[in-house]
Specification:
5-stranded mixed sheet, 2 domains, 10 helices, alpha/beta, 3-stranded mixed sheet, Spore Coat Polysaccharide Biosynthesis Protein SpsA, Chain A
């Protein structure tokens, strides 16, 4: 009997996430080829995966989510591949099959994605959720379906992004090349939000705060880099000048209140923005 999933590779991007990676894999049948890219050198995870015939694991340095996807591409020999963050919920064979069934109706797509149940109403409106297949400007990097040759034509992900906006940048470049981005509204998923619910687990409150500051630093670094890349330095700087002013006022305010935690929060955010404006690399790591 022909394997209906033979043209697809499922890719998981893992970082210190053994339990949720194994749980994700167990929800899929052995008919699906799975590739795990781990950037935390988790040998325990490797020992478990080596027992599974349909799963392969490769290690790499922690150079960011987009970099890990590009690295995964070098091991993919199927026509399509489906990238997931392993903390995405509700993924099984039926979910994957929804996408394979829609391929006959969609041509020249830059990427396909599911409908995320925990997104804003604004995002719902942008994705035409009343349609079976809704065209959208960008989809979440937590679940992205690609045709391999088109992914190559778009030249994959910009590895200057460590975290945040890498998928937005990819989708924007795809659209510039004439490809469309679609959301398959029948395929619905949950994706936990917050520093202690995702792939990187915080052990205590101090770790939660540290991760929150780290994510804040990367978010604003990546946002300025994205704006500078697509709209030019001058327009990006004009857009971010009020943000710089607001952050500085907040730092002064919390200095007067002697709130060290909030001072550190906004100083970290300002540091990320200044580094991005200065052209420095996205260098902080969890």
């Amino acid at each position: 009997m022909k394997n209906k999933f033979e043209l697809i590779t499922v890719v998981l991007i893992a970082h210190k996430s053994k339990e949720i990676v194994l749980e994700f894999i167990d929800n899929l049948s052995k008919d699906i080829k799975i590739l795990v890219i781990d950037n935390s050198n988790d040998l325990d995870l490797k020992s478990e995966i080596d027992k599974k015939e349909n799963v392969k694991i490769e290690f790499m340095n922690n150079n960011g989510y987009g970099s890990a996807i590009n690295y995964a591409r070098t091991y993919i020999n199927t026509k399509y591949f489906f990238i997931f963050s392993p903390d995405v919920k509700n993924i099984d064979d039926e979910f994957i099959e929804v996408f394979t069934e829609k391929l006959k109706d969609i041509k020249l797509f830059g990427a396909l994605g599911p409908r995320f149940l925990n997104v804003t109403e604004k995002s719902h409106k942008q994705s035409n959720i009343k349609k079976e297949i809704g065209e959208i400007n960008s989809i979440s990097g937590a679940a992205m379906f690609f045709e391999t040759t088109i992914f190559d034509d778009i030249e994959g992900f910009d590895e200057n992004f460590f975290l945040y906006f890498e998928e937005t940048d990819y989708c924007k470049r795809a659209k510039k090349k004439g490809y469309k981005i679609y959301q398959i509204n029948k395929a619905k998923v949950d994706h936990p939000k917050g520093e202690n619910t995702g792939v990187v687990k915080a052990e205590n409150l101090d770790e939660v705060k540290k991760l929150a500051n780290l994510y804040s630093w990367h978010f604003i670094w990546s946002k300025f880099y994205f704006y500078r890349k697509h709209y030019g330095f001058v327009l990006a700087l004009l857009y971010f000048t009020p943000i710089i002013i607001r952050i500085k006022f907040r730092i002064i305010y919390y200095i007067l209140k002697k709130d060290k935690e909030s001072i550190n929060k906004y100083k970290t955010r300002l540091s990320g923005l200044i580094d991005s404006i200065s052209g420095k690399n996205s260098h902080l790591r969890p």
